[in-house]
Amino acid sequence: MTTPLDMLHQPYWMTMGPMIVVAATGFVVMILEFIFRKGDRRWLTVLSMLGVVAALVVAIIHFNAKPTFALNTIGVDPFASVFSVLILISALLVLLFTLDFSAKSDVPAEHTYLILFAVVGALTMASSIDLVTLYVGLELLSVASYVLVAVRTHSIRSVEGGIKYMLMGALGSAVLLYGMSFIYGISGTTNLMNLSGAGLQMFSTYPAITVIGFLMMLIGMGFKLSLVPFHMWTPDAYAGAPTPITSFLATLSKAASFGMLLRMLVFIFNAPGAHLFYWAGIIAAITMIVGNFIALPQRNMKRLLAFSSVAQAGYILVPFAMFGIAQSADWAGLFDSISFYLFAYTFMTVGAFAIVYLLERDKGSLDSDALIGLYQRSPWLAVALTIFVLSLAGMPLTAGFLGKFYIFVDTMHFSTIWLGVILFATSVVSFYYYIGWLRKVYQKEPVAEVTALSASPIMHTLVAVCVIGTLALGIVPALLLHPLAGLPWIYG
Amino acid sequence: MFHYWNPYFLIVLYVVLGIFLPVASIWVIGPILRPNKPSEAKGSTYESGLEPVGDAHVRYNARYYLFALMFVVFDVETLFLYPWAVAFKKLGMFALTEMLIFIVLLVIGLAYAWRKKVLEWT
């Protein structure tokens, strides 16, 4: 029996290092922001990026360390490390993206440290082993995101998106908490370590309540992950938010939510609830089909990317359906394909949003006609967009193709081929709207004189980093798969 | 068997009484007993003895919410300080540092609100 005093001496730095660094940076930036109120304040964003880099260094140092737990709530195992690194990399990309947008005066500087606080929440979601702490992390991420969506207080669309996101997010949180309360009610503990042992007994004694708990937790996270039919807020929030924030919602927030969902479901419902994971497969199928088909008639570029991100969430949910079928020895492969897809998805999505942002600023409209003549205007950006879009669609030699390929192989391996077929078929549908973009990109501009699309060096760097990420993971997947291979993902 | 249904019986009794009493007093016994002399003053909205002015459906100033938010933050802080004070002897230096960090974070929040002119009404 450990007393509270013993627990206090557990190694905090090992488990919470990245969180402490990011939170401290957030507070420092917040204080500096309200002390220095004049002039160009982009150095605040640079400072935040330095903090995130420091946290990334800490996370990588602890990468292969022995799993450690502090206060029985925060733990660091390979699963937490991989997701922390993913979250911090996407935070770095998003902050680089906001660096360009901070130059505009109509956006308050609050977004810089709101992103940092959201990252702290995301890191908590990746590394917590207690339902209550996981929920606190989720709320920290969500509340910061609601404000971030509505950060342009003068734009009615931004505020509308923020309010919608907040209402749907609150509903999702309520459903999630209700599901957690069922699990707590029948097991008497919120600690995932204890729950993973109690799962079998819980399931044999109260099967109905366990099923309700599982479904409610899946649905609650479904609101955050914009799974169909809980995706209604997505296009409005994505289109209303400033574009860097949209890329934040699409990558960082989604990666952290997938991490949390994976950890909760796999810890609690591993062995006994095998057939429960089938529900995740059904939701994944609906999400892939609906997301891709609604995206077909979209003309607004950000709304199209929003529906595309709904569909991508469906692809990533596919391996969840296999956790019930696979033996725990085979789980490593599933973890590999989920995290590979999330890494690939981060690079290609941030890149696509970066170019949409440049076009939006140039033309003042989000209609996909803004793409016309992009190749004539800026060949390099047009080729970059081509790479991102083909990767989102799943063309070979890009990261997106390999991500889908690994998931498809999983479905064949664990004989849920119907999910693989839906994944393949809906990807073909997605080619239609992505190729529609490319047709416009390579179309000739009707006007005689062409002006190059203006982009700051920051945006060129961001696009270049995303292109390198997308191509590198697509051509040499071992870059990522090698460190992931043989990781003892979860200690349960 | 008796001690199982006994508490439920009490609940049923409460439910029956809870429905019977208001229904009886408002719709059945009340109308029989009370005299019926309506006047304009009796029909008006009760506002602590003042003459009611305007409509109840008015827009509140958003600043009320900001003040309420600030109040809740420091209310919760006080709530945390009570168990902390009780357990302080046992936890010692560690608890002091923890609480200092907590209060410093709240003070940063207050300073932020101050700088952003949340505390000014105009």
Lay out the secondary structure.
The complex is a heterodimer of chains A (492) and B (122).
Chain A: H1 4-8, H2 12-35, H3 42-61, E1 68-70, E2 74-76, H4 78-101, H5 110-127, H6 131-149, H7 156-187, H8 192-205, H9 207-225, H10 233-240, H11 243-268, H12 277-295, H13 301-317, H14 331-363, H15 374-377, H16 379-393, H17 399-413, H18 417-441, H19 457-475, H20 478-484
Antiparallel strand pairs in A: 1-2
Chain B: H1 2-33, H2 40-43, H3 63-91, H4 93-115
Helix pairs in contact in B: 3-4
CATH architectural grouping of chain B: Up-down Bundle
Q: Roughly how much helix do the residues of chain A carry, as a percent range?
A: over 70%
Relative helix content of chain B: over 70%
For the secondary structure, the number of strands of chain A is: 2
Largest sheet of chain A: 2 strands, antiparallel
Label the structural class of chain A: mainly alpha
> Largest protein interface?
A-B, 8 and 8 residues
What sequence of helices (H) and strands (E) makes up the elements of chain B?
HHHH
Summed up, the helix count of chain A is 20
Total strands of chain B: the figure is: 0
